[in-house]
Amino acid sequence: MDEIFRWLTGYSQTALEAELAKGTTFEDFFAAAPKLNPARALITGVICGIRVETVEDPLMKEIRYLDKLIDELARGKKMEKILRA
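Request: output the structure for the sequence above.
Response:
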């Protein structure tokens, strides 16, 4: 999961662990992300009954991107496909 978080947000492993240890909110986590991956726009599909690409709220869109990637990991999809490589 850490690899997914790093790919999506640009955090280093050390910085990611620091954010998790602080109990950072998702709002602050994404706002402070070093570099949101532009390839995240390639993430499409339905998660929790919501089509990811139609979410309008910027924070919810980032959260849904993360949800979708974690869901793909849980379903056993290969990491190179999850990370849109």
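Helices lie at 2-9, 13-22, 26-31, 58-74, 79-82.
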